[in-house]
Structure formats: C-alpha cells, structure tokens
Amino acid sequence: MTEPYVTEVRLIELDKLRQHEEVDPAHLKELKEQIRSDKILKFAIVVDKNTNVILDGEHRYNSLKELGCRRIPVVYVDYNSPDIQVQSWRNNLHLTKKDIIEAGLSEKKLPPKTSKHMIKIGDCLLHISAIQKRTDVPLEVLNDIELVDIKKVKPTMCTELREVLPLYAKFLDTGIVDDPIIIDEKTSVILDGHEVFQALDLLSARKVPAIKVNIFEMKIRSLQQGLKPVTTEAIIEAGLKGPRLPPKSFKVLLEPLKVSVPLGELLAPEEEDRKILKVYNNTLELLYEGWPTPLVKLKSLSTDKRSVWAKLEGYNPFSNSVKDRIGWSMIVEALERGELKEVIYEATSTNTGIALTSIADILGVKAKLHMPQTIQKVSDTYLKVLGAEVVRLPVGLTVEAIGQGDSEARINNATHLNQFENDANFKVHLKYTARELDEQLKSGGLKPSCIIGGLGTSGHMSAISFYFKNRYRNGVKIVGVQPAPNEVIPGIRRVETGMKWLHWVDFDEVVEVKQVEAIEAAISIARKEGLLIGLSAGAVVHAFNKISKDEGVYVLIFPDTGYKYAEQFENYFKNLQERQGCNAVDG
Ligand code: PLP
C-alpha cells in the first residue's frame, strides 16, 4: 500500500493550485498581517496530488497571493486514499470527496470553513494539519525561483564528488531538477545546494534554479569542528575571491524545498553555436573551445547492420591525447582551491606529462615528471622541448612511480596533482567527453549499444560508463580493455593494479590484449582507414574484433595517435622481418 501523503515539501506555483472553498475576509486579513510581520510562512499546506485542489490551507494560499508571492510550500497527498476522510465543520452537512474536487475544479466554491479533512495515522484519526510540516520559509524564498546563468553564481564550498554523482544520475534519469540552490541576491555566492550546482555544472547546464535571499538575514550554522567558525563575511570572500571553504563547513538553516524544473530548460540548445571558424584567443582556448573531438565512422569495420565509430582523442592540441582534458581540469581545480604552487609533480607514462607541462608553460609554472623505464625514449625528447624535468624510475608501471613524486612534492612545497586519485580526472570526462559523445551520436539519431575503451587511471571509461548507464540504463554495454598479464601497452594497465573510479561504476566486460595484437590492430586501421592510431587505441580495436556482434552501434575510444610509438612499431617490424627471414631459411 502506498503512503497517502509524501512528507517532502515542494515549492509549487500558486497558479497551479485550485481552491475549493471561499475564504473568510476577516481571517484572511489577520493572517496576511501575521505572515507579513513574521516574514515567514510557518507551515506547508496540503494539496491533492492528482488534481492540485487545496485540501487545507486556503487562507495561507490567499495570503501569499495577496502578498505578491509566486510559490507556496505544499505537502502532497493522494486524496483517493481511504486514510483521508472529509467531514464538515457544519452539523447536518454531508460532504463527499467528489464535492470537494468538483468545487475545486469549477468556479462554484463552497462557503468559507465548510470542509474539514482528517487523516488516519496508525489508529488515530487526526486533523490533516497533523502532516503539515513546519517549514518556516522566508517570504522572499516564495517570491520567485529564477533560472540563473550558471557562470554568474559563485560556489563558496568544495564538494565531495561521491555526493554529487547521485544528483547527476537523478537529473539525467528523471529529466527533472527538483532541488533549487540558495544564493545571495547581491553577490550571487552560493549558500546552499553546492552538490546540485556541481551536478548541473557536470551536466554542462547553462542555468541553475536559484532562490535569491539576503545573506545577512539568513541563519547560518558553522560546521567546522575545532576550526574557526565560518562567518557570513568568510562565505562571501570564499565565493568572490576564493579559495573555497572545505566541504560541509557551514549550513543555512532552511528546510529543504523541492521544485520541478525540466533539465532541458537548463541545458544549452542542442545545436549549440559552435566555433565554426575555429578562431581562438589563446592556446588554452584551443583545448576546451576545440571540443568536441571528432567522432568518425570506421567504414572498414561497419556493415549494413553495424556501425562502428571512433572518438579521436588524438585531436586534443597539447599531448595529442585524451590526457589534455585531465591536465587542464586538474590544474584549473588546483587553481580554484588556491593549491597551485610553482612546480607541478606527476607520475606519467607520457601523455599526462605532456598535457600538464604544456598547460604549466602557458601559466608560467614548472613541471617535474616521474616516468617508468618501460616507456619509449622519444617521450624524454618531447618533454625536454616543452621544458619539463624528467626522472626515469626503475619500475614497470606508472602507478609505481607515484610515491616518489608525492614525497618530493611535499618536501619541496610543490603541487602533486595525482591523476590516479584526483576526481578532476573523472569529472572532466563526465562533463565533456561523455556528454559530447552522447550529443554527437544523437545528432545522427544513434544510441550506442556498446562502448569500448582502455583502462589506465580508469578516468575516461568510468565517466563514460556512469553517464551512459544512467542515461540509457543497461541498454549500453561498457567494455574496458587491459593488457594481458606481463604485457606492456603504454597508457593502460591491469585492473588489479588498482583503479579508483572503475569501482564506482559498472563495466560489463574487461578484455585482455597482448602488445603484438594491439600493434597489429593499429596497423590494420592505418592501412584500411588511413589513421595512424596509438597502441592503446589498437588494443581497443583488437578487443572490438574479439567481442563484436553483427549488429549494433559500437563506439571505440582512441586515446591518442601513433606518432609517439615509432619505437614499438619499429621493433615489431624488425621482429617480423627476422621471423620471415627464419621462415625463408626453414622453408
Ligand atoms: N591510452 C593512453 C595512450 C593513455 O595515455 C591513457 C592514460 O594514460 C589511457 C589510454 C587510459 O586512460 P585513463 O587514464 O582515462 O583510463
């Protein structure tokens, strides 16, 4: 059996509600004055969720209308429930629920104080006001909810990504944003709803539903245990100048309120005006204004019933790889938190190192990188040209080089961004890579049946999984690719070496690939499609060949191009020649 009422309080537009009886003018006047002098509405009213007819609270409804408000807090009930009964305040008058609804939906209202609604809670029959939650909503909150430009609101607190993701998933799944944020009317600093703001920002929303209040009239509770209490001035400063306050450092004392704004109203128009002429004001813009990276159909792998698409992350300008995205987002977040020092330390297998050094160069910051011995030598040359300091460590995997950079960064007061743990990695792929892929597919009327990509930090594929699994439920199969045991494929590694975000999301399958298989698949794409792709992209193609079916829409994520892997291609051809030579002798 369903509950006859929902305990959450929703802010509903007054225009949507219907009253079923007239109000008593004297009582209305008195109540209106009371609300005006309190500057708050204490209790939510009760409304039938099926018809929007008000069951209790018509005087409050009319008071707010006359006070120029647009919304009212409502507790919705299911009026069909037998637990709700209608009685009359007048003796001898028999009222039915049908009478109430008919009066609500017609122009003929019942006289003031005719109906009385009761609700059964446990064994007791109580007046329905028993479920009217005390909300104490300030009148200004009821005035209006605005859809505010997301770039104009100023976050004051950091958030935990794990608290943002459920909201992101809910908004994407329901298509409705039901939590407004609270901002200061003068400064636009956020007082409440940081997680909602972050979720909408990750969805690339242009607007956010906001309630404007005067920060100096709000009751704020500081939650920083053992630290200095957060003052109103500190909140404003965090929003206007930064750095942001730690997560959950303060709370506005306001009952949570719900609204209902279609997500579509907050997002950019689907056919966004792109920078068709590709003119950029600086080299950093070349990166983020250049997105989306291309999505191209691979004719050699497609058939009548199956289309195969490759997302070419090699089109990013700095490292010519997917890693430009995280280099940028990790640095931007560090800047926002006031944590970017003069030197950036990072463990890298090349691409992240190039991305970080390039962006550091633009910002006038230095980079010191730790790389495993197993990585191709040419990387040192590229990084030297860009001005990074490179230290090779006698380890096989990039993750094994994290500790060294971390301790050195601490000693030298430098910034260790740590792509393996830094949520800016996952977030940038959620906000851009995954969403742009969806938009690109939608522009061709396509819904993916399977997306395949390599696992390094797991950042890009975990974000893609999170996005598509929430957007299309389990209609999309997500496949990760890892090197077979004891195989080296630059950029990707085995799941058991430890990955953060992979465990937050669903993968349907993880496919193992040997280095030689990756190289051969890359060569076959080069010779059929004319694209020189990297080894991890080759591994993705091999995985596709292994698992693909005859039908469906397949998306392959190609993290980079083949130009950095001349060494591996050369060795492959040399070995091939030797083998062929042997065969010739044998034969
Ligand atoms: N392929 C290449 C060439 C890479 O450089 C990387 C990451 O370093 C990946 C794949 C894996 O990407 P992610 O770290 O997002 O899992």
Structure description:
This protein has 587 residues and is an alpha/beta fold. It contains 18 helices and 27 strands. 42% of the residues are buried. Pyridoxal-5'-phosphate (PLP) is lined by residues 321-323, 349, 351-352, 454-461, 490-492, 534, 536, 559-560.
Give the secondary structure arrangement, pairings included.
Layout: E1 10-13, H1 25-38, E2 40-43, E3 45-48, E4 54-56, H2 58-66, E5 71-77, E6 84-88, H3 97-105, E7 115-121, E8 124-127, E9 134-138, H4 139-143, E10 146-149, H5 161-174, E11 176-177, E12 181-184, E13 190-192, H6 194-202, E14 207-213, E15 220-222, H7 232-240, E16 250-252, E17 261-262, H8 263-266, H9 283-288, E18 295-297, E19 306-312, H10 323-336, E20 343-347, H11 351-363, E21 366-372, H12 378-386, E22 389-393, H13 402-411, E23 415-416, H14 423-443, E24 450-454, H15 459-472, E25 477-483, E26 509-513, H16 515-529, H17 535-547, E27 552-558, H18 566-586
Parallel strand pairs: 3-5, 12-14, 19-27, 20-21, 20-23, 21-22, 24-25, 24-27, 25-26
Antiparallel strand pairs: 1-5, 2-9, 3-4, 6-7, 7-8, 10-14, 11-17, 12-13, 15-16, 18-19
Helix pairs in contact: 1-2, 5-6, 5-15, 10-11, 10-14, 14-15, 16-17
The site of pyridoxal-5'-phosphate has 21 residues, from α11 and α15.
- Spatial extent as radius of gyration: 30 Å
Runs with pLDDT <50, length 5+? none
Shape: elongated
Strand content: 15-25%
Major β-sheet profile: 6 strands, mixed
How many helical elements? Answer: 18
Give the neighbour order of strands across the main sheet: 18-19-27-24-25-26
Bound molecules: pyridoxal-5'-phosphate
Give the fraction of residues assigned to helices: 25-40%
Overall mean pLDDT: 92
Global structural class: alpha/beta
End-to-end CA span: 80 Å
Q: What's the number of extended β-strand segments?
A: 27
